[in-house]
Amino acid sequence: MEMRESAVVLTKRLAQTAQETFGDFEEAVEKDATKTAVLDGTVHPLTSYVINYVKFLFDYQSTLKLLFQEFDEGDADARLTAVTTKIMQALQSNLDGKSKQYKDPALTQLFLMNNIHYIVRSVRRSEAKDLLGDDWVQIHRRIVQQHANQYKRISWSKILQCLTVQGLSSSSGGQLGSDSGSNSGLSRAMVKERFKTFNIQFEELHQRQSQWPMIENGKNPQKYIRFSPEDLERMLAEFFEGKTWSEQKR
Q1: Alpha helix stretches (DSSP H) within 60-210
Q2: Average pLDDT over every residue of 46-63
Q3: What is residue 75's three-state secondary structure?
Q4: pLDDT in the model for residue 184
Q5: What would the mean pLDDT of 116-122 be, rounded to a whole number?
Q6: Are 59 and 130 a contacting pair, CB within 8 Å?
Q7: Can you list the domains of the chain with their CATH numbers?
C-alpha cells in the first residue's frame, strides 16, 4: 500500500515537472534573443529546433496524456493541444521579432513566408495535425499567402509600374490610353526613360534576390509542371506565325 502511494506521489511530481518544463520551454522560445540573423531569409535554426521538439513530444504523446490526466482531470487531448498551440504561438512571436532585423522589407516578408510555410508543412506531415486541426493549418496557410502578397507588392510594384501607360503623356497634352491622347505624339524620351528605370531597378532586384532561397512546396515538381520557362518563352513567341501544329512540334 505504501509503495502504491509512493508511486502515485511520484507520478504527480512527474506530471507537475512536465507542465513546468513545457511552460519554461514556451517562455524560452518566445524570449530567445539569438542575434544570429539568417542572411538569406531561409528557415531560422530556432524554427527547425522547435519543430523537432514538437515532433519529439508527439512520439510520446500517450505517456504525456497519462501525465496530464494525473495533473488535471480534464481532457488530455485538449491539454496537449493547448501546450502545442502555445509553443507555436511563442515561436511565431519570436520570428516576428527576428524579421525586424532585416533592412530590406521584401526580405522580411520572405523570411516570415519561408518560416511559417516550413511550420505548416511540418505540422501537416506529423501527428500534430490531428490535434491542431485543419482550421489551424488553413489559417496559417493564409498567413503564408499574405506574406507572399506583401513580398510581391514590395518587390515588384515599382518595377511593373515602369511598363504601364500610366503617366505617359503625348505631345498634344493627352495621356496615352485616354480618348484625347494621341499615341503618335508620345514622347520617345519619356518611353526611353521608363525602360532605363526598369532596367536599373530590375538589375538591382535580380542582384539581391537571386541569392535568396525559397522553401519548395513539394518533391518531384516535374510530375505536375509540364512546361519550363524556356518552353513557355518559345511557345509564346510562336503565336500568330501561321504555322501548322506539325511544324511547331519539330
Answers
A1: 61-71, 76-99, 105-124, 128-161, 188-209
A2: 90
A3: coil
A4: 46
A5: 96
A6: no
A7: 2-155 (1.10.357.60), 162-213 (no CATH)
